[in-house]
Amino acid sequence: MDVELRVAGSADAARREAAELLAEQAARGGHVAVSGGSTPGPAYELAARLEPDWSRTELWFADERCVAPTDDRANYRLVRERLLDRLERPPAAEHRVRGELAAGRAANEYDAELRGVALDLVLLGIGSDGHTASLFPNDAALGEEERRAVAVPRADVERVTMTLPVLREAAAIAFLATGRDKADAVRRAFGGSESPATPASLVRSAAGITYAFLDREAAVGLRV
To answer: Is the pTM of this model over 0.85?
Structure first.
C-alpha cells in the first residue's frame, strides 16, 4: 500500500495534476468522492474545464459539516460553486450528506446510501493536524469497521464522515496538499509509520493506487 508521491514545482501545478485525475475519471465514469477545504477549489474549476461532461459519474462527499447546504462552511456549497455549476452536463447523481439534519440522522442516511458502493476515486486533503475527511487524530471514528459513515462530534460544528473501510476500498485515492503549513502533517502521513495520531497515514487504497499531489513547500520534510 505504498503512496505514489507527485511533487510539483508550485501549488498550481499540484492542483492541476489533481484536476487532470478528476477529469480523467469523470470521462470514464464511476463513483467519485470529493472533499472541501481551501486547497481543492481551483482544482475543481480546472477539472470542470478539462471535462465538462460528468454525466457518467456519481458524485459523493468524503465528509460534510452539519450545516445547511447554502452555508459558507458546507463542503457541498464549495463543490457546487467551484465544480458543479461550471459543468455542461452534471453528474448522473449527487449524493449529498444532508448536513441540515441532526448529525446522527444524517450519518445514518449516508451510511445506508453507501452500502454496496465501491468508489472509483476519492480526492482528500490533509489538515495541519494530520486529519483527512473528518477523521481526526485519535478519534473513535478511526476504529469503526462496520459503518460506512458516522457522525463526528466537534467543538465547532458536528460532522459526518466516510469511514476508513469505505475509503480503503476505493480503487484510487488522491491526496492534495500544498504549502509549508502542511509540511509536518505531510511528513507524518507519507514519511512515517501508520498512526491514529495522523489519520491520513491510515488511508490507503487496499487494492488500487494512492497518490499524493504535493508542492515543494508541502513536501519539504519528505525524502523525494
So the answer is: yes
